[in-house]
Each structure stands twice: as structure tokens, then as C-alpha cells.
Automatic annotation (TrEMBL):
<feature type="transmembrane region" description="Helical">
    <location>
        <begin position="167"/>
        <end position="186"/>
    </location>
</feature>
<dbReference type="InterPro" id="IPR000515">
    <property type="entry name" value="MetI-like"/>
</dbReference>
<keyword id="KW-0812">Transmembrane</keyword>
<feature type="transmembrane region" description="Helical">
    <location>
        <begin position="100"/>
        <end position="119"/>
    </location>
</feature>
<comment type="similarity">
    <text>Belongs to the binding-protein-dependent transport system permease family.</text>
</comment>
<feature type="transmembrane region" description="Helical">
    <location>
        <begin position="207"/>
        <end position="232"/>
    </location>
</feature>
<feature type="domain" description="ABC transmembrane type-1">
    <location>
        <begin position="96"/>
        <end position="287"/>
    </location>
</feature>
<feature type="transmembrane region" description="Helical">
    <location>
        <begin position="266"/>
        <end position="287"/>
    </location>
</feature>
<keyword id="KW-0472">Membrane</keyword>
<dbReference type="Pfam" id="PF00528">
    <property type="entry name" value="BPD_transp_1"/>
</dbReference>
<keyword id="KW-1133">Transmembrane helix</keyword>
<protein>
    <submittedName>
        <fullName>Carbohydrate ABC transporter permease</fullName>
    </submittedName>
</protein>
<keyword id="KW-0813">Transport</keyword>
<dbReference type="GO" id="GO:0005886">
    <property type="term" value="C:plasma membrane"/>
</dbReference>
<feature type="transmembrane region" description="Helical">
    <location>
        <begin position="32"/>
        <end position="54"/>
    </location>
</feature>
<feature type="transmembrane region" description="Helical">
    <location>
        <begin position="131"/>
        <end position="155"/>
    </location>
</feature>
<keyword id="KW-1003">Cell membrane</keyword>
Length: 302
């Protein structure tokens, strides 16, 4: 005997189905609007980079003759060959080597120093720690330009001009931003671990070596990536302290590549600009997971 379904039940089921369908349509509409908005925003943000890459492949007369076009009439790879040749008999291989030396050593010195200083502020008790930490935080608000003249006078007296010493030695004290970040990270590590290590007879160095340092990996990688970015892109310091073209970093060489007294080969300039972005881009691609993890972990434990 067939079961008879009540009309009211059928009506309720139909209504529930319609509500679910309507909810799915609304979610789909929101998703489309969200992705289109994010896509447009990403396009706006990336447009200068896309324009730069395309312009590095355009013929010289087409770069500023047809600025709005993102499709070159022909792909001119010679821009990269001409750009790499550099100027004054110095190729961009020398400038990239200088930048890697400066950014590599600068990052190593500043991050290593920041780790030790950060541990001291976070875990070691000493008189005047709060005052020193407050002074260090105040330096974050001090414009770099304020220190340029006194630093230049001191480094000139020391005979360090035209060497990498004025750019590297001040990093021995660490960077205020990275010290603050590492302090915040260490403060999130339970103090009980330190006390347990002390009961086992560990001193400050062993606590740092075996308890704190193994947990600092995300913060160290994040600090390293940021420090390398900022050092690689730094322009003012190398411009002031390095006057020998053989010591120029990429940022300074790119500025010198544009000659105001003659016609500039903009295709070659843009091609070297594209290559100058590669180290930072590769670093971000390979370590973006650690970068996000380090920022998120530091923020939660701060």
C-alpha cells in the first residue's frame, strides 16, 4: 500500500529547498564580487611591475612613445645585454656582487646581534633595563637623515669613506625593529622552561642555546627576510659612503646608469631594474611560509 505524503510536508520541503538554493546563490554572488574586487586590486598593485617588465622588452623608441601599451611590437632581449654591460667598463656583475656582499653581511650581522640583544632584554635582569629598552624604542621614531651628518663626520675621521665599514659596523648593535620583534617572541615562551633548565644547572648561555634559540626559528627567518629586503634596496647609505664606481651597489649603479647630460638607454635601465627585483622575489617565494608564520606567531605571543 503506497504511503500518502501530506501536502503541507511537500510544501515545507519545497520551501527549504528554495531557501537553500537562494542561500547558495547569495554565497556565489558574494564570492564572485570578492574575487573580482581582489583581482582588480591585485591588478592595480601589480600594474607598475607589469609595465616595468614589458618596457624592459620594448624597443627604445617605443617605451615612452607608446606608454599605455602592454604589448611590445617586438621583443627586444638586447636591452638585457646592453644593460648588463654597465658603464665605465664595469658590468652589472660587479654591482650585483657588491649588493650581495653588503646585503648578506649586513643581514647576518644585524640579525645575529638583534637575537642576542633581544634575549638580554627579554630574559636577563639588569639595572636600567626598562630605561634602555625605552630609549631603544624611541630610536624607531628617529629619522635616519638626522644621523647622517654626525655619522659622516665620524666615519670620515676614521678614514672609512669608500669602504663598506660605515654601512656594516653600525649594525653590530642590532636593529631596533628586529630587537623588539624578537623580544616579543621570547616573552611568549614560558618562563618555566628557563627555570627548569636553571634547576638542572644551566646558565644563561645554555638556556639561550638549548631552550630559547631552537624556538626562535620563525622569528629569525622573518627578521632575516625583512633585513635582506631593506638592505638590498637601501640607496641613501651606499650613495653617501661609496664614491668608487667599483664599489657601487645595484641601487646606486641604477641611479648612475641614467645620464642627465646625454640620452639614456631606458630599455637597458628597465632591464636591470627587473633583474634587481629577482633576489627579493626569489627569497619571498621560497620563504613566504616562514614569513607568514613568523609574523603571525610573533603577533600572538606579543
Amino acid at each position: 500500500m503506497a504511503t500518502q505524503v501530506e501536502p503541507a510536508l511537500l510544501t515545507n520541503n519545497a520551501t527549504i529547498t528554495e531557501i537553500r538554493a537562494e542561500k547558495k546563490r547569495q554565497e556565489l554572488t558574494k564570492s564572485i564580487i570578492y574575487h573580482v574586487g581582489v583581482g582588480l586590486f591585485a591588478l592595480i598593485m601589480l600594474y607598475p611591475v607589469i609595465w616595468l617588465v614589458v618596457s624592459s622588452l620594448k624597443p627604445p623608441d617605443e617605451i615612452f612613445g607608446n606608454v599605455t601599451s602592454l604589448i611590445p611590437s617586438e621583443i627586444r632581449l638586447e636591452n638585457y645585454i646592453e644593460g648588463w654591460a654597465g658603464f665605465g667598463g664595469i658590468t652589472f656583475a660587479t654591482f650585483f656582487k657588491n649588493s650581495f656582499i653588503y646585503a648578506g653581511l649586513g643581514t647576518l650581522i644585524e640579525v645575529t646581534a638583534s637575537i642576542f640583544v633581544g634575549y638580554g632584554f627579554a630574559r636577563v635582569k639588569f639595572r636600567g633595563k626598562s630605561i634602555l629598552f625605552g630609549i631603544m624604542m624611541l630610536t624607531l621614531m628617529m629619522p635616519t637623515e638626522v644621523l647622517l651628518i654626525p655619522q659622516y663626520i665620524i666615519f670620515t675621521q676614521l678614514g672609512w669613506i669608500n669602504t663598506f665599514l660605515p654601512l656594516l659596523v653600525p649594525r653590530i648593535g642590532g636593529g631596533a625593529f628586529f630587537i623588539f620583534m624578537i623580544v616579543q617572541f621570547i616573552r611568549g615562551i614560558p618562563i618555566d622552561l628557563d627555570e627548569a633548565a636553571m634547576i638542572d644547572g644551566a646558565g644563561q648561555f645554555k638556556i639561550f642555546r638549548y631552550v630559547i634559540a631552537p624556538q626562535l626559528t620563525p622569528a629569525i627567518i622573518t627578521a632575516t627576510i625583512f633585513c635582506f629586503y631593506w638592505t638590498w634596496d637601501e640607496f641613501l647609505g651606499p650613495l653617501i659612503y661609496l664614491t668608487n664606481p667599483k664599489l657601487y651597489t645595484v641601487s646606486v649603479a641604477l641611479r648612475s646608469f641614467t645620464d642627465a647630460t646625454s640620452q639614456t638607454n631606458w630599455g637597458a635601465v628597465f632591464s636591470m631594474l627587473v633583474l634587481s627585483l629577482m633576489p627579493a622575489l626569489i627569497l619571498f617565494i621560497f620563504f613566504q611560509r616562514y614569513l607568514v608564520e613568523g609574523i603571525a606567531t610573533t603577533g600572538m605571543k606579543g
